[in-house]
Amino acid sequence: KERVRAAEEGIMGGVEGEKPPEADARLLSLAPLNLVVIGHVDAGKSTLMGHLLVKMGAVTTKQIHRYQKESKEIGKGSFAFAWVLDEGEDERARGVTIDVCVKHFATKHKVVTVLDAPGHRDFVPNMLSGAVMADAALLVVDVTRFEAGFERGGQTKEHLQLVRALGIGQLIVAINKLDAVGWSEDRYRSVMDPLHGFIIGPEAGFKSSNVQYLPLSAFEGTNIVDNNCAELKAWWGEGATLVDLIDGLQTKGRGDSTGASGGPFKGCVSDVWRTGDKTSVSMKVDGGTLRNGQKVLILPSNETAIVKGLECRGASVPECRSGDYVDTALLNVEPHFVSVSSVLCDPSSPLPVVTSFTAQLLVFDLDIPIVKGQQVMMYLHTGVDSATIAALEAIVNKQTGERENKRPKALVKGMVAIVRLTVPKPVCLDCKGSGGVGTLSRVILRDRGKTIAAGLVLQPS
Ligand code: GDP
After folding, report:
1. How confident is the model at residue 122 (pLDDT cuts 50, 70, 90)?
2. Interatomic CA distance for residues 121 and 129, integer angstroms
3. Probe target for ligand 1 pocket from 47, 71, 232, with the most ligand atoms within 8 Å of CB
């Protein structure tokens, strides 16, 4: 909570504990975009996002100086930019990003929320919560050690498949550390070419037109907001910077200045906290518009509440739209009816509450095939719970999208399959393609510490 607050201070210049400032009209007119940062450990994700946030004025140089001083004290001076995102004590000592940290900055047309995902294997679940919330992905690749992240055991491929399976179609690939290879165009291409083959190939399946590449140096801050590097300019010319590419991402179905924002209100709770007898939540709006004073239905508890006060992008706002993160208090409801993974929606358009549903999943790199009856950990939008694979219904042909091989015996790596899942307690979810941003239909399965499959809910069953 504090972390989100601190992040929002950056952009709005607020002070913790003070009443939120009045909304900035310009910020409110911009379309919200949630960007998850993926890639192998040490690719430079945190350095890049730290530098970006500083350049966009979302973090002050004072904060940076504090981080620099602290990082020197424990002998990790080069991590100063990374520390903008790595705020916990633990993370600093280890020099890795553990939590998904949320930060905001504004470009010409967008308010961007950065979800920084860690690359370490054992921290993968945090990356999942970032990916579930995202509208687009930024992949950071280390040009000096590309193979380490790309071959078996590296996270680059798995992260790409995961975001694609969750329905995230837009991708920016930042080929990083070009300073360390003398800004060589040949080195840039030698990484970009095989990577592009994988990204648009059958395993990841991105559309070529939705993927953009750029060379940069996170450490030197080159080609993030501007490009003053003569060696890069020699072959990149006046090509796009990272911020140009982010600004140009599509935000279809998202609230924007035209007021277009897909269907009735729905959203999922990612945090709950109580002050005195007041219950407050953080939530991502997944569709429609939420207004201050509005009555909402809480599922699966099936209680109603009144929304009191909306705080979005660090300011009090009268309403917020599809794609926004918002903090709000819930009145007239007992606290135990609201929890992380609760869904809030328009009482006249309740979403399904189920204990059994089908999902279309992409199967990841597995040691043991997935079989009927298997117990798994299920990440469904903002919730985590155990689930059972009750039936393997069909395999989907990746080229045609058609169902074939009804009732397969087992699922192995690379398959796309329709699976029926059952859960011990009712969950509220949304179905693929029912409008809005799509977060509420995203599902990821893990078993024995590994992500085994990810995809989208199809329908209650
Ligand atoms: P993450 O694990 O992906 O978040 O990676 P970090 O941001 O923590 O960076 C890992 C290491 O790479 C640190 O030592 C950084 O200083 C270094 N690094 C990051 N970006 C660059 C870059 O553009 N050029 C060079 N030479 N080193 C970089």
Report:
1. very low
2. 15
3. 47
User: Residue 66 — pLDDT band, cuts 50, 70, 90?
Assistant: low
pLDDT in tens, 77-96: 444 444 444 444 444 444 33
CA 46 / ligand 1 centre spacing (Å): 7
**Percentage of residues in the chain having pLDDT higher than 70:** 78
DSSP string spanning 239-263?
Answer: PPPHHHHHHTS--TTS--TT----S
User: In sequence order, which residues have a C-beta less than 8 Å from that of residue 151 and are 6 or more positions away?
Assistant: none
Indicate if the pLDDT at residue 192 is higher than 90: yes
Token readout for 382 is 């903002």
Q: What is d(CA 64, CA 71) in angstroms, rounded to the nearest whole number?
A: 10
Residue 47 in contact with ligand 1 by CB distance below 6 A = yes
362 and 308 Cβ atoms separated by less than 8 Å:
no
Find where tokens 């004072």 sit. Answer: 62
Give the model's confidence band at 25: pLDDT under 50 very low, under 70 low, under 90 confident, else very high.
Answer: low
Choose one of 37, 42, 52, 144 to mutate for the ligand 1 pocket test, by most ligand atoms within 8 angstroms of C-beta. Answer: 42
Q: Which of 223, 249, 48 is nearest to 135 (CA)?
A: 249
Query: Measured between alpha carbons, how far apart are the two ends of the chain, in Å?
Result: 36
- Residue pLDDT, tens place only, 288-332: 999 999 999 999 999 999 999 998 877 788 988 888 888 899 999
Tokens of 145: 């050690």
Instruction: Give strand pairing partners of 280.
Output: 273, 329
Distance 177 CA to ligand 1 centre (A): 8
Say what the pLDDT of residue 67 is. 56
Spacing, Cα 95 to ligand 1 middle (Å) = 11
Is the Cβ atom of 82 under 6 angstroms away from ligand 1? Answer: yes
Q: Which of 240, 268, 251, 239 is nearest to 111 (CA)?
A: 251
Cα-Cα-Cα-Cα torsion 424, 426, 432, 438, nearest 10 degrees, comes to: -110
Calpha distance 357→420 (Å, rounded): 6
Residue with tokens 């911020």: 243
Centre of ligand 1 from the C-alpha of residue 408, in Å: 44
Ligand 1 midpoint to CA 115 (Å): 17
**φ, ψ dihedrals at 288, nearest 5°:** 70, -165
pLDDT in tens, 229-257: 999 999 999 999 999 999 999 876 554 43
Identify which has the larger pLDDT, 461 or 100.
461
Could you tell me the pLDDT band of residue 7, with boundaries at 50, 70 and 90? very low
* Predicted local confidence at residue 59, as pLDDT: 64
